[in-house]
Amino acid sequence: MRNGEDGIVTDPGGGGGTGDLRRGVGALEKFKSRVDALLADFEGSAASKTKVADQKVSRASLSGPNARFAEADGLYTQYNRVHSSLVSLSKSLGDQIEYLSLGVHAAAVGFDNVEDDIRRRFYEIQNRMDAEREKHAKSEQAKPEQADKENQSDAGWAAE
To answer: Which residue would you say has higher pLDDT here, 108 or 14?
Structure first.
């Protein structure tokens, strides 16, 4: 090995030695402690996935149960849509913070030294995030097609 006989590649500006590696691990550990603190704060706050999911409004609270009130129906529908999005966002944020925390831990101790249950949890979160990303991408692809259909008239494409 010509550049760094011990297998560590050094650049002309210096660095790349084991001291830099130790500083990098220290920075990762510091970052992990910050992420862990954020996760603890998040789970203890009103924004935690369980607390957000528990905050619901019934349709009857917007008008009488037998009263036909289209605006209240619309408000209730939009409230539920936004509430579902917030619950999903809260869960996703918690997963991403935990995912980062597990990744930083694995980088600090070496992936081969990570316990199987932590490794399994890391992959569970990764698979769930990938599935959500694919689901979102498919729904985004469907939106332009739906918009195109809405913009069509009997004579062809509607003028914009």
So the answer is: 108
Q: How far apart are CA 44 and CA 50, in angstroms?
A: 10
* C-alpha atoms less than 13 angstroms from C-alpha of 129 in its C-beta half-sphere: 16
pLDDT of 43 reads: 75
Q: What CA–CA distance (Å, rounded) separates 9 from 81?
A: 52
The residue count of the chain comes to 160
| 10 close to 17: Cβ distance less than 8 angstroms | yes
Spatial contact of 90 and 52, defined as CB atoms under 8 Å apart? yes
Say what the pLDDT of residue 108 is.
83
Q: How far apart are the C-alpha atoms of 121 and 36, rounded to whole Å?
A: 16
Q: Which among 52, 125, 123, 124 has a CA at the least distance from the CA of 89? A: 52
Tens-digit pLDDT profile for residues 36-66: 787 778 778 877 767 777 777 787 777 776 7
Beta strands in 41-148 (DSSP E): none
- First-last CA distance in the chain: 65
